[in-house]
Every structure is written in C-alpha cells, then in structure tokens.
Amino acid sequence: MNQYIRIASSLFIMSLLVSSGCTSVGHPTSEFCPKHGNALQTRTAYKISQDVLADPTRSYIRVAKQYPMHTPWIYSEKLTDIHKDREKVSFCPRCDAELKNALRE
Ligand SMILES: [Zn+2]
C-alpha cells in the first residue's frame, strides 16, 4: 500500500513537470533575448522521445550557458529516429547561430 502511494505521487510530480514544460513552449512569444535584445522566434522542432536516455556533449555544457535563448539540445530541426515529439520552441536566432559557431571551434 505504501509503495502504491509512492508510485502514484511520483507520477503526479512527473505530470506536473510535463505540463509546466508545455506552458513555456508552443505559444507565440513577445519575449526578448536577455543577451542580444532581439525578439524571440517560434518554430516547430522535434524533441527527444522521453524513453530515450541522452546527454548533451561536454562542449555543449561548457558553452551553452553563454547563449541563454538557444534552442535546447533536446530538440532537432528534423524528425529523426529519436527526435519524435513535435513541439513549438521559442528561441533567439543569434543565440542559435553563435552557439553553433562556438561548438564548431
Ligand atoms: Zn540571443
């Protein structure tokens, strides 16, 4: 009985996390990038499926925080074997471009 309650409450927390995640994406945005000051854009992207375990690369972790509004690594512009969940994502095009450049170095 105890164990059942534990499972149920962790499921509840999971669904809270998922639903709060959904409020930050999927809406047209009038937000601005704190780094570049330009308006954010919204596009369709494909998120890594929840049943896929994946981690960002070390270089991504090192440089990504300098680009606050880049498209998070869990998203791909294209549908792939692991990126299957279609969502709308807000992003700063300059953060995306500069992060891409930084990762190429
Ligand atoms: Zn930016």
Description:
This protein has helices at about 1-25, 60-65, 95-105; strands at about 40-50, 75, 85-90. The chain is an alpha+beta fold. The protein has one domain (about 25-105). About 10% of the residues are buried. The structure holds zinc ion. Zinc ion binds next to helix 3. Zinc ion binds near residues 35, 92 and 94.
List the strand order in the largest sheet: 2-1-3
End-to-end separation: 55 Å
How confident is the prediction overall: mean pLDDT? Answer: 82
Cα-atom radius of gyration? 16 Å
Number of strands: 3
* Bound ligands, each once: zinc ion
Shape type: globular
Taken as a percent bin, the fraction of beta residues is 15-25%
Number of individual domains: 1
What is the helix content? Answer: 40-55%
| Oligomeric state of the chains in view | single chain
Please summarize the sheet with the most strands. 3 strands, antiparallel
What is the SS-derived class? alpha+beta
pLDDT under 50 segments (min length 5)? 15-26
Please trace the helix and strand order, writing H or E for each element: HEHEEH
- Total helices: the number is 3
Short recap of the structure:
By secondary structure, the chain is an alpha+beta fold. It contains three helices and three strands. 10% of the residues are buried.
